[in-house]
Amino acid sequence: MSATGGIRLVTFDLDNTLWSVDGVIRRAESEMHAWLKPRVPEFERLHASTLGEIRRSVMAADPDIVHDISRLRVRILWDAIEHCGYAAEAARELAQGAFDTFLDWRHRVTYFDDALETLMALHGRYTLAALTNGNADFERLGLSHLFSFGYSAADVGASKPHPEMFQRALAHADVAPAEAVHIGDHPVDDMEGARNVGMYTIWANLMAQTEPAAATATVTRLKDIPEAIASLVR
Known about the structure:
By secondary structure, the chain is an alpha/beta fold. It has helices at 22-36, 48-61, 69-83, 88-106, 115-122, 153-156, 163-173, 187-196, 225-230; strands at residues 9-12, 127-132, 149-152, 180-184, 200-204, 217-219.
């Protein structure tokens, strides 16, 4: 696959780059609590400090779990439900059911203006890949016809800005860093991380962030990304 200007691979962050995530997570958590309420009524009475202690205990026992937020959430739910007095196996099943509800709603996103149209405009001209620290799954979102592949922090055992995810994408696509551009919203996780492995960067500053980002280019509208990519290598 070739592209004008030498760029062959375009990687995208997902949350807060293609959609706003905060409202999505709030709704997913609300639906999860609604699922739990009739099944584990004691869960709603747990104090926030207790949940905080359980979270810290889980992370202390398995520090690497921080890179797999799905596994982290399930483990916290499991331990919290056990804390409510449920047997381990019942707690495990309830935790998984609650998480499945959360994950369903976590994938009900409202895309930013021009997000899908921009991906479609880029598809075919470049190899597109999704790189995320979160647990959004591009296949579950119905984007597998646009993204050729994707990696999460859970897949590689490290979160952006660690170089591993970017390097894994470069190796997967068999391209050099100078033939790739990463697009994301986070000045450190996305821009600094990709820049440190030698990739071009486009800062998608769609929510008027005031913290500056050192990026090769900046856009405030997703529909400006194709032109920004084309201008990277003349």
